[in-house]
Design goal:
272 residues; 3-stranded antiparallel β-sheet; 3-stranded parallel β-sheet; 9 helices; alpha/beta
Length: 272
């Protein structure tokens, strides 16, 4: 992972830099910061950047989550934007360039036919997996709910199964019906928690039978995944106090960087 001054040396022999990468609409997904670093490097090298805009797969209307706090700024959250930011890659480039003062020579090639209320399925475009654990655009909403706590290294988010980020559980959950019922009572509309058992093929709890839930999004317009993810942690703490999700203090820093706040751990531990 190279920093802007190093990148500036690499692009010095180019005339124009094209950026054409599909983002997923989540603050902690690093593609938008690769773009930001490239823009910073272009400003140093005096090169033009052209962004070929792509759709936000979870629409350009709904936004969720806390604004990132500057003290936890990192490559998984560089600028103070919401966790689900509701912007396209090109819009983010314009935001970074002006409000966060990158000030490179920037041009955004806008999309045709895209409207803000579109989900990716509405675009008629094929989904090419953006990374191994985002096999489909429908993965993104549950990923917003479960993707943050994976940094704690305790509760499984389904990575290592055929439905990454759609599962939540661990070997200590022997009655998934109880877990699912408690989650359903705490959560809002648009989501059904199905009690289940699963066994990861690799990664966390590899080869172990985990009790838990599968997240079924029944109405994406009503589902609020980010707050659901925080409720999931809170409910887990209430039901399984003997399992400390935050026991690995060495992972607290990364969790804070992904969630964009150092207070979320404290709030959940305090039962808020």
């Amino acid at each position: 992972r190279k920093k802007p001054p190093e990148i500036a040396e690499l692009i010095g022999g180019n005339d124009i830099i094209l950026f054409d990468i599909q983002d997923i609409g989540v603050r902690s997904y690093t593609y938008i910061y690769s773009m930001a670093y490239l823009m910073q490097a272009a400003a140093i090298a005096g090169k033009k950047v052209v962004i070929l805009d792509r759709p936000n797969p979870v629409n350009g209307v709904q936004m969720e989550g806390n604004i990132l706090e500057p003290e936890v700024s990192s490559f998984v959250g560089l600028y103070p934007i919401p966790y689900r930011h509701g912007m396209t890659t090109g819009e983010l480039a314009l935001l970074f360039n002006t409000e966060f003062q990158i000030n490179c020579d920037l041009e955004v090639i806008k999309m045709t036919g895209w409207t803000r209320d579109m989900w990716f399925a509405d675009t008629g475009l094929p989904w090419v997996p953006t990374s191994p654990h985002v096999p489909d655009a429908s993965t993104v909403l549950p990923m917003i709910a479960t993707g943050t706590y994976g940094e704690l290294g305790k509760l499984s988010e389904g990575v290592g199964t055929t439905t990454p980020f759609e599962l939540s559980g661990g070997p200590w959950i022997t009655d998934p019906h109880r877990f699912a019922k408690a989650l359903q009572e705490k959560s809002g509309a648009g989501i059904v928690f199905r009690p289940t058992f699963f066994k990861p093929y690799y990664g966390r709890h590899k080869g172990q039978v985990c009790g838990g839930v599968q997240l079924h999004v029944t109405d994406p317009d009503l589902f609020q995944p980010y707050i659901t993810g925080l409720q999931l942690l809170a409910v887990h703490q209430e039901l399984y106090p003997e399992i400390d999700l935050f026991e690995n203090e060495g992972r607290w820093s990364m969790f804070a960087k992904v969630t964009g706040s150092e207070s979320i751990i404290k709030d959940i531990q305090a039962g808020l």
